[in-house]
Design goal:
4 copies of one chain form a homotetramer. Chain A has 9 helices and no strands. By secondary structure, the first copy, chain A, is an all-alpha fold. Chain A has 2 domains: 68 residues, Arc Repressor Mutant, subunit A (Orthogonal Bundle); 108 residues, Tetracycline Repressor, domain 2 (Orthogonal Bundle). Chains in contact: A-B, C-D. At the C-D interface, α6, α7, α8 and α9 of C face α6, α7, α8 and α9 of D. Chain A binds a DNA duplex through α1, α2 and α3.
DNA sequence: GACTAAACGAGACGGTACGTCGAGTCTTTGT
DNA sequence: ACAAAGACTCGACGTACCGTCTCGTTTAGTC
């Protein structure tokens, strides 16, 4: 789980430091939303690491970001478990909104959406499958408690809950207001409502 | 409905022809998925229109695409109306999948997702709000027939139906298979299921 | 006779000035013998003209030097005509030595010797054929006066006179002393001595 | 007199093998006329010897070539001695032409002409002084037989004979045709023709 | 039908970034 | 302890596209 540069044979010392300094420059650029600062030239300038070194290790900006993304892969943050499915869903949805509105995501998402680099695409796919699978636990618990239908797979429910958020942020650029989230949770709750025969 | 080049004082003749030839080049590039061919230089080469002329009229690639996107705004295609909500939703979903999988969308979507150009963002927002509002008619009809709850706004139902498709195409790059669509429609149908008191 | 950029359509304007400033930088570098300063990057720095502009106009250092060389092509300097062939030859030889010992030649000759660029090779060939043809006049006059044999072509005589100078400067790096020149002239004089039957 | 790599402390072992493998790579590059293959990187690649090793032993490409040139210093090839000075001169001239036209010379000569490395310059100077001194024997014999004047030093005669060949190959890039050689020999013969008083 | 102003064609320029290559230095590793 | 391996800095290469500029040339619409 070392990222793309598997060949890292000399973990101690200069190489590791190079890696860190370049990553720092990338993070800085992402946080500031300065897409232009993600050019290799500019990253080299900011990190103090020479252009050719970056090329040698990562080949391209996208490889670099893929590598970084892997490091960012969501630590298994504890899920809300209030006993109330709606409340749990709302918390998760708000958390995702907060994440997507954060500068680093605002910058990164379009990059991921637009890339043709397989490494970056794969890293991103991994990120989301991991996030969704983890979050699905909420629905699974609700199913076990008889609070959610078993006719919808937990991971699909999560997809339906979160997809509209991504749509608004990435595509239609509509606001992700409080009211929108509430509405979204209501819809998910309806989708997950147990049928009459499941209530027993 | 003049597009971005409001300054167009001489609609007839050469100017119009210039506009068409450049648009044709843009469309061609989009269809071939050749992002590189969307550079002003390459468009100039392909269209036979001089670089400076393109700059004068559109200022940038994004302005150009915004202008084109406006022209592409969905003609009000007839909606399916089979009397069966599930079937109608499935048809719409499949149609959207087909559109998004088409080369021109595959190329354009990331551009839209990634742009910072307000004109392009606005043109895109207009495109989708128009598409969604139009499609919502299906749900509205179902509500009138008592086949769908009135507790979910038609436009929100459409959002929930289509958002996962965009998510998969743009972000997670999961397949948009037949099974996925079926599953999606099932979820939407559950969301729209009339409550017991609505059935009367 | 405008050098390589025959297309120069705007002689009075910026283009002409660009040309001059770059040439000045090249001349400066040649005179200082700083081969490294003949890199496009360094010439751009010194001339204040942008790298890409130089590439556009000359494609490479060698094209540039070829262009410059054409401009340097020997103005038809007056030839010595003392009535004494030996003395005339000596003067020409010394003049060539002086030219070759000048910093600009010292830098340029190896470039010409080493180039694979056809334009530079051609420009150089032109330079020398012109120089030799011009110088041959001395021998021609001597022939007319009966002071030199007609069995050696004037241009060959010049070649034999001057070639050892080039050999020493370029290849063997032996000194081109006064004594060497005298010796050289003696040899040429012997080569050109009229046969008994020509003396009449 | 082992060349530049004075550091060679272990003549029989690995060091000697390294030397040979690198030399082989240099020779190969010279013969193929691939100047680019004379870079340290490429030589390392071809020879299988590590870059740093080459740096340690020779410091630069030029040192390496100087070292090699010393090894190539002309074995004392037997001189023609037909009793006919003209014929002998012609044979020598043709042999030199053949040498210079050989790929290895074509590649090496410009390097020598252009170098600023004193070791390489010295090695080259040694090569030519040895070649010329050796060849001068032809003229010396002719003098002893009364077939050539004593007023021209043998080594100078050789210089006059061969210099035009170098001039054409290196500088003016004129052809070194059969006719040219004949003409050249004629001129040298005239230069060496004994005076009336020497004929006795 | 000639005139005028907008639009277009042409092409040079300065500028940023690209990705690559070779030179030469310095560090880590293995023996 | 030392040489091999290799990661690093540095700078040049040649190219692509950007956006700007100055000219000169159509051409559309008007008087």
């Amino acid at each position: 789980m070392e990222g793309v540069d598997q060949v890292r044979t000399r973990p101690g010392g200069r190489s590791a430091q190079v890696r860190e300094r370049v990553f720092a420059a990338v993070r800085e650029a992402l946080e500031q939303g300065e897409t232009a600062a993600l050019s290799i030239d500019e990253l080299a300038r900011r990190s103090g690491i020479h252009r050719t070194t970056i090329y040698r290790r990562w080949l391209s900006t996208e490889g670099l970001i893929a590598d970084l993304l892997i490091a960012l892969t969501p630590v298994e943050t504890p899920l809300p478990d209030t006993g109330d499915l709606r409340r749990d869903l709302a918390r998760v949805a708000r958390r995702v909104v907060a994440t997507l509105e954060a500068p680093i995501s605002k910058t990164m998402l379009p990059l991921i959406a637009g890339t043709t680099d397989p490494r970056l695409a794969e890293a991103a796919a991994g990120y989301w499958s991991s996030l969704f699978a983890h979050t699905a636990e909420i629905v699974r618990r609700a199913q076990e408690r008889g609070l959610a239908t078993r006719e919808v797979r937990p991971i699909d429910a999560v997809e339906s809950l979160l997809a509209p958020i991504y749509l608004r942020v990435l595509v239609t650029r509509q606001p992700t207001s409080r009211a929108f989230i509430d509405n979204l949770v209501t819809r998910s709750a309806r989708m997950l409502a147990p049928g009459p025969e499941e209530k027993a």
